[in-house]
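> @MW can you paste both from yesterday?
MW: sure, first one:
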Amino acid sequence: MMKRLLMTTAAASLLAIGASAYAQDNSTTGQTGTGQPPVVTPQPPASNSTDPNNPAQAAPATPPPSDAVISAQSTNEVSADQLIGMTVYNAEGAKVGTVHDILLGTDGKATGVVLSVGGVLGVGAKSVGLTWKEIDVKPDQQQVQISYTKDQLEAAPDFKTTEQINSEMNAQQAAPPPPAQPSGGTTSQP
């Protein structure tokens, strides 16, 4: 009996909610009865005068001077995305790593490269920085040549970015001080 009462109450509630939702939907459709909002067509501007504040009507931009623009890559230039990922070989022709990144000075000139050395598919690889004068870029062969062996590069110090250095310094400053060591004197036991 109680089960039947609950089922009847639930069914009545569902019907009431459905009717309420239908009534609200019909009241928002307005006079059209389609449920679609009326279509509004944008009107063109009233005046054809030129407005300097309107970018669509402004005069065409003047390009930079011709001596400031590079219109094409020359044969003795290599783009950064070509260089990054290039295989690095030593003078004997042995693969020693790949170019991971390029370092630029504040004057915009390349100052060095970061090589990825060792590891398997980049996992466990070591980053080693070399100055720009230490590399010979061969774009026609899609490679970079250096005069160091893989063993020499693996023995070199790890390259650290300024973000890594700052992170390490912050971690050291945030670390709690080491526990005090007992003095070298004798202690008495009770």
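MW: second:
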Amino acid sequence: MRFGRVLLAVLGTLFVAQGALQFFQPELLTNLIGVRAQSITGRIELQVIYGGLHIALGSVCLWGAANDGNTRAALTMMFFVAVGVAVPRVGLGFYYQDFSGYSLLAMGMEVALLAVILVLLKKYRQKNEHIA
């Protein structure tokens, strides 16, 4: 399952890099998507969610990429993350009629990632059924 490890390595690198950037410069979200902290508590929240949480997600992806024995577990975790992001993004996009360029790009990427992870997990399942 080389592709699964490559996907996790790419995701891990992107999540860690983006998370580190957002942790140290949360105001970048203002320019990118219009998210603005109006208090120190809000700034901390942006740093925690867009910084710390994304670094943690990236670390799990890199852990899964580093060892084939960890790949399925990391893909399973990322499946739940992808569902938790893609379903509300698409649903709320339609609910609020938000079809901005950013929202459409995010919807497409998140749904595509979910589909790719599902295919990879199915292949892992078939591989394990064949061995058993």
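> thanks! Residues 15 and 57 are 7 Å apart (CA to CA).
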